[in-house]
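Notebook, bench 3.
Goal today: get a predicted structure for LysM peptidoglycan-binding domain-containing protein from Paenibacillus farraposensis so we can plan the truncation constructs. The sequence was checked against the plasmid map this morning, with no discrepancies at the termini. Length recorded as 213 residues. Pasting the sequence as submitted so the record is complete.
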Amino acid sequence: MEFSLTDGKGFKFVFPVNPEEVTISRQKGFDTATILSYGEFDFPQGEKVKEISFSSFFPKEYDESYCKYRNIPDPQEAMNTLNGFLLSQKPLRFIISGTSVNVPVIVASHNSTFRGGESGDVNFDLSLRTWREMKVSKKAGSGSKSATVNKKPRTDMKEKKKTYTVKSGDSLSKIAKLELGDSSQWSRIYQLNKKVIGQNPNAIKPGQKLVLL
């Protein structure tokens, strides 16, 4: 079983340690009205946005007994990735492999905890909310517009990819600095192009076409 978040640019973040449990909260919306002499009355509305929450940790060192893959991210880099997702205004796709959970979401909250005795490890709590697209439609025969919610999750959230052709003397950190303005983004470029580059991120070759976004 694999827990992952993928953005519209194709960047996939796989959580290195699976949470022990995942909570999915479902609620129905209500409008409450007060009628004189009769009290309050609830009028059922549509389903509220689902909330998905779980807790886990980012280990400093690989341990095959609980880590899902060997090349685990540095805990600080992993936290920065989640913070980037939190600040983003665009939806992500949350997938739990082997289950029916495959939904567009936004990151609602991300809390990190550092505990004594676990040097380098970072514990976190993550809360996601399912995302629905709102469309503006124009009523026939009138100039007015109304907002409607697309009840079916949008399946295509992909953005147009930005590419770069490797030149002699290039490195991933150099490309990240020149093209993205941040040399620390080299690891993200590597993850997006791991099949092209291979196991050694320093072994890029002139002529290789890399996806940056």
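DSSP finds four helices and 13 strands in the chain. The mean pLDDT is 80.
Flagging this for group meeting.
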